[in-house]
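To fix ideas at the outset, we first show an illustrative case, written as a sequence plus integers encoding its fold:
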Amino acid sequence: MRQTAAASYHGVMHASAWDLDTQPDPYDGGGLFCPTCGETYSPLCDRCPDDGTPLVVQLVDPDPLVGRVLDGRFRVLRALAEGAMGAVYEGVQLPIKRPVAIKVIRDELGHDEATARRFFREARMLTQLAHPNIVDIIDFGETADGCLYLVMELLRGLTLDLALATLGSFSVRRTCEIGLQLCNALVVAHAHGIVHRDLKPANIFVLPELGDWIKVLDFGLAKSVAHDPASEITFAGAVLGTPLYMAPETISMNVAEPRSDLYALGCVLHEMLTGRPAFCADSAAVVLVRQLDDPPPPLPADVPPTLRQLVLALLAKDPDQRPANALTVCAVLEHCLAAELVAEMPTRIEPTVPPGDDEKT
């Protein structure tokens, strides 16, 4: 991450923009910091001797994790996002200087021995998924003071909810392309016995530079750190799903199965086609009631019948009325996408005549 202007990202500014003679040294460690490799160097240096990145002065950050090295391998650089399960940080894997994202589980969820066991079991399963549409899990662990963390590939792009907020509804073709990638991720996860439980646009990362390639985040984490299968007790304050995308059986019986993920997929597809969530309300309680009782709003008139039927089937209140599995949904979306591509093909091909050729005798 090369920086060309002072204070261009949170908590860090160029050493050249900081007057060390007149300002107190804000760095707790007595040196300068390389935002690319995460190493600390003498104030006499102005560039990293390894990669040439301009060194920066790290300002005092109220977040105690920023600047910390987890298990001697992963340095936490800056906070990226925060949610119900924990916070996500940008970091660097020190031995190989690889940029990473580090998810740290909230203290109130991570200091329980049973929770830690479930977290490790789920994290080990996630490392086996290895699918192009699922974020790569690099490592996981627990620090000496009980901090649970998960290290993932660092993605550059935006979440699907931000893309929807910016662009509104998507075309049928784009919806099918993204939906097919989501289905491929679900097929692999469900084959490994992992249910997402919280599939939603905020957990779907879009990589525009790769042509709308998507990566699904947080597979299984909600289940591993928020739910105790032995006692059937949910931790206070933990979110087992987001009301706008929760299946009726999850709301009424706290049951999450592969078809619950398919319901959430139906909510996401509906939102991409219409530009707004299917079951909106002013409060979470009303949203939950609508998920249980209300039919989804009609889709736009230009949505093809096959795709329309698929979305309605995914949003069936009874899980048994939904498609059997994600592989079935993949087949339908492939058919819909193929139909869209065929429809975009020209009906006739006009010969190209070079200028002036039609006047030759």
User: Anything to note?
Assistant: The two ends are 64 Å apart (CA to CA).
